[in-house]
Design brief:
With about 160 residues, the chain is an all-alpha fold. It contains 8 helices and no strands.
Length: about 160
């Protein structure tokens, strides 16, 4: 999935979650907090690829992660989400709770979006089986945009 697709998917997910009142801290959160929180992390899983949008900007971190784990491994798994959530819960980070929840949603939206491609993701890494619901072909950027736009419109109209 492209950078644009991940951003649109994250925004549509956070809007839909806020409007459906699915998660209390998102529902009661400030719109700016939840949108920006989601955007802050929606590209983060691709830190494991030096040629990605975020990887190009943080090569000093991206290259070692890529060499140790490869692309779509640890950073695209539930394991890292669990580790991050444990870290957040035990640390004394002074960030509003709605922002933290939105950041988790943004990160998860990236993983779900990559599951929509034929390559899939190793959801239970280090178990190597890849999970995929191949709706979006890698070469079909138009379909990706169309799906993203439909989801955003649906989320806003809900």
């Amino acid at each position: 999935m492209t950078t644009e697709g991940h951003i649109c998917f994250a925004i549509s997910n956070i809007i839909l979650i806020k409007k459906t009142k699915l998660i209390y801290f998102i529902t009661s959160g400030d719109w700016w907090h939840v949108i920006l929180g989601s955007l802050a992390t929606c590209l983060l899983p691709d830190i494991d690829h030096p040629k990605s949008f975020i990887g190009k900007r943080f090569k000093w971190l991206s290259i070692p992660i890529y060499k140790l784990f490869g692309h779509r491994s640890l950073t695209h798994s539930l394991l890292l989400i669990i580790i991050m959530m444990i870290y957040i819960s035990i640390s004394k980070i002074n960030v509003p709770i709605d922002v933290i929840y939105a950041m988790v949603i943004g990160y998860i939206s990236h993983i779900i979006a990559d599951m929509l491609t034929p390559a899939g993701i190793p959801l239970f890494w280090p178990y190597s089986k890849k999970f995929s619901i191949p709706i979006i072909k890698k070469s079909n950027i138009r379909l990706e945009r169309l799906i993203s736009i439909i989801i955003i419109i649906y989320a806003m109209q809900y």
